[in-house]
Amino acid sequence: MYTRVNMIFGRPDMVEDGIAQLEESDRRAVEATDGNRGLTTLVDRGAGVIVAVSYWDESARASAATLTRARADAVAAAGGDIVVETFEVAAQETLSVPTVGAVVRMVRVQIATGMVAEALGFIHDEVLRRLRVEAGFRRAELMIDRATGGGLLLVAWTAEEAAKHTDTLLDRVRDEASGRVGTTFPRTETYAVVGIT
């Protein structure tokens, strides 16, 4: 499975307009596109950032003309700019589907060239499996671009207090990840779930 991650950097005073465009119009267009496997929308209202993660059975399906128009409409509604990235879903751990309002930690991942397989094993065993047993855990997804080693780790929690488990665990494994499998976690951002299928 593949993902198209659309990060819309909008104006905080227009973020609700961007969300409305995504949820009331664009979601239907995305979900009706052949090969779509779901859409998750996240928001950081204070920063004016909206993240739309669409899931696909084939990477190429995420480039349909209908989707290009939907992205442009959402960007215009939010009064901002967009950055688009494509990843492969390398690992998932799900206890239950996150609900609207759930807290999501989005962690940037960077893996050294030639160490992707080892790093994916490390993240699965030392991060995802440990997060799964923490109170408040809902879902974790590791998305990777195997060519560049860049990726995202999305971890959904019931509330902010529970989401701190992500921060604590990453602090604990940071040195080992870097030294053993050439992996760093350069940035973590916090979002709330707006919609999910």
Mean pLDDT: 94
CATH class of the largest domain: Alpha Beta
Number of strands: 8
Strand order of the largest sheet: 1-3-2-8-5-7-6-4
- Global morphology: globular
Count of DSSP helices?
Answer: 4
Strand residue percentage: 35-45%
Structural class, by secondary structure, is alpha+beta
- Largest sheet, described in full? 8 strands, antiparallel, barrel
Report how far apart the termini are. Answer: 15 Å
How many individual domains? 2
How much helix, percentage-wise, in residues? 25-40%
Report the C-alpha radius of gyration, rounded.
16 Å
Structure description:
The protein is of the alpha+beta class and 197 residues long. The chain has two domains: 2-87, Alpha-Beta Plaits, CATH 3.30.70; 88-188, 2-Layer Sandwich (Alpha-Beta Plaits). The protein has four helices and eight strands, in the order βαββαββαββαβ. Strands 1-3-2-8-5-7-6-4 form an eight-stranded antiparallel beta barrel, surrounded by four helices. It is globular and about 45 Å long. The mean pLDDT is 94.
Summarize the structure.
By secondary structure, the protein is α+β, with helices and mostly antiparallel strands. The protein is built from four helices and eight strands, in the order βαββαββαββαβ.
Please write out the topology.
Layout: E1 2-9, H1 15-31, E2 36-44, E3 49-56, H2 65-78, E4 81-94, E5 103-111, H3 116-132, E6 137-144, E7 150-157, H4 160-181, E8 183-196
Antiparallel strand pairs: 1-3, 1-4, 2-3, 2-8, 4-6, 5-7, 5-8, 6-7
